[in-house]
Amino acid sequence: MTNTTYIMGSLLVAALVAQFRLRRYVPSVYWLAVVLISIVGTLITDNLTDNLGISLVTTTIVFSIMLAVVFAVWWASERTLSIHTIFSTRREAFYWLAVLFTFALGTAAGDLAAERINLGYLLSGLMFGAMIASVAFAHYRLKLNAVLAFWIAYILTRPLGASVGDYLSQPRADGGVGLGTVVTSALFLSAILVVVVFLTITRRDETPAQTVAPEELQPHLHLPHPHVHVPDVHLPNVVPPRPARDQG
Q1: Distance CA 82, CA 67 (A)
Q2: Cα angle, residue 67 at apex, residues 122 and 98 outer, rounded to 5°
Q3: Does residue 230 or residue 40 have the better pLDDT?
Q4: Rg for the chain (alpha carbons), in Å?
Q5: 107 with 41: CB under 8 angstroms?
Q6: Neighbour-count burial of 126, counting CB atoms closer than 10 A to its CB (0-12 exposed, 13-18 middle, 19+ buried)
Q7: Could you tell me where the DSSP H helices lie in the chain?
Q8: pLDDT in tens, 103-146
Q9: Which residue among 62, 78, 172, 193 is buried most deeply as judged by most CB within 10 Å?
Q10: Residue 235: exposed, middle, or buried by beta-carbon count in 10 A (0-12, 13-18, 19+)?
């Protein structure tokens, strides 16, 4: 592991502690945790590949299995993978663990497609973008389950981002645009900052509970739930409905 990995890992731990301590959704804290966990997930894959010499095929397979295990344990414990039901510390812990392995897997898969399979950064980005578009089409037109569609698309966003980032930063001789790492990082961070400010002001990423399908808020009622949770929302998912005022 490099010093950068240790530093970013420490910052991630601090951000997650702050996130878990909050009893409401704060966009700046949440998205800081997302940015840091994306960096740490990327560094884990890069360390395994570049420093330890583990092949991209191996890391892609291993992280796929680990992510599947996280989803399986999450499901076994909570009987739902819906982000609209993250009302407890346990569920949020599963969520962040899934996100970490998603970024690690996405980095490995993106590099595998662009470099090992030799598709190139641009073609890899277009391929992953088309896959996300296909998931959106399957959800909106073919009624693909919303939770399944979300997680498939979420997993695909990381290799898409990695391919686009590499395409912008890598030298022209290697199939990139040649902007360099500093300029590309500045562009991405600026875009993230704009989005966070926009969401902080508009709260557009909060979904009222009334608009969420009942099967997501109370999933699989025919199965025994091992836990009963009191709504305590601090992820950008659901705003619980306000109780009706007494009439009279």
Answers
A1: 15
A2: 90
A3: 40
A4: 19
A5: yes
A6: middle
A7: 3-21, 27-46, 56-78, 89-111, 121-140, 146-169, 181-202, 214-217
A8: 999 999 999 999 889 999 999 999 999 999 999 999 999 999 98
A9: 78
A10: buried
